[in-house]
Amino acid sequence: MLFCGLFFSQAINKKTYIGDKFFAPGDYDYIFEVDDDNEETKSIPFNEGDNPLEAAEKYCVREGNKNRMKITTNKSKSFFPN
Fold this sequence. Notes:
Distance between the termini: 34 Å
Shape: globular
Largest sheet: 2 strands, antiparallel
Strand content: 15-25%
Number of domains: 1
Number of helices: 2
Structural class: alpha+beta
Number of strands: 4
CATH architecture: Roll
Order of helices and strands: EEEEHH
Radius of gyration: 17 Å
């Protein structure tokens, strides 16, 4: 069966992020709020089509969790072989 026609998705309301050393300022599809070990809320801006691993790496480096990033990255790669 062949379907022809137009498909519309719901528009995403962009959210503004002020920017920092690792994430550029601007409008993003999502801004995820993450509670860290000190119960402080941190933000991760993200657009559809962005690489989630890259966003996670930037967040870890920004927050000083380089060792945790390497462990997570290595585990992730084992689940997603090239």
